[in-house]
Amino acid sequence: MRILVFGDSIAYGSWAEYGWVELLKHEAHKRTIESQGSTKLQVLNLGVGGDTSTKILQRMPSEIQSRQSASWQFAFIFSFGTNDQRTVDGKPETLIEQFEANVRAIINEARIHTDKILFVGTPPIGQPVAILKGQEYSDERVKKYEERLIAILQAEGIPFVPMRTVFEKTSLDSLYSYDHLHPGNMGHELIAATVLSEVDKLL
User: Fold this and answer.
1) 141/145 Cα distance (integer angstroms)
2) Separation CA 48–CA 56 (nearest Å)
3) Strand partners, 5
4) Tens digit of pLDDT for each residue in 179-196?
5) CA distance 109 to 111
6) Which residues pair with 43 in a beta bridge?
7) What is the pLDDT of residues 29-78, one digit of tens each?
8) Reported pTM
9) Is the Cβ–Cβ distance between 10 and 122 less than 8 Å?
10) Which domains does the chain have, with CATH numbers?
């Protein structure tokens, strides 16, 4: 199984020694070795810093095509949304109606290749509002965008791994890097541990 993980800088693993996707990759390698190749798992990190749902949708076809192989079946993991709601000149970069349309289009594109699709929620922002490179990230907006995402996934019968509740049960300060936007090492370890059990169900 070849698992493609599409996302933003959190999926990429910015500001952590090992991001959650890399931790999943290490576990996949471990399982492949322990099974002596009878169970082969690959995890490919296609997270790009700054990406929105629009950018992910645009690059999906080429990213998928370049990784197709008769020897490997696909599974997809998606994790995005924080950048969609950030404000540019006082307006969200992706209007929420466009966000919904993008999510549906992403699902349709993924279903061309597999029925093994999983969405991972974004962690809450470490404070009510964070400013990065002059752009405002609002945790309240993150909630609203994720609510729309969850509604679509429920209608489509696609599993969703919520991260907000998992983070809120833990001391938030210990889970973030210096910018209160990106998880630190402990945050990524928490995401990986939570996602892994859902990946096992998916496969």
Assistant:
1) 6
2) 9
3) 45, 77
4) 989 999 999 999 999 999
5) 5
6) 3
7) 999 999 988 888 999 999 999 999 999 999 999 999 999 999 899 999 99
8) 0.95
9) yes
10) 2-202 (3.40.50.1110)
Report DSSP letters for the chain, one per residue: -EEEEEESHHHHTTTSSS-HHHHHHHHHHHHHHHTTTSS--EEEEEE-TT--HHHHHHHHHHHHHTT--TT--EEEEEE--TTTTSEETTEESS-HHHHHHHHHHHHHHHHTT-S-EEEEPPPPPSSSEEEETTEEEEHHHHHHHHHHHHHHHHHHT--EE--HHHHHTS-GGGGB-TTSSSB-HHHHHHHHHHHHHHHHHH-
Report helix, strand or coil for 113. Answer: coil
And the tokens for 192?
């990986």
Structure tokens at 105: 């289009």
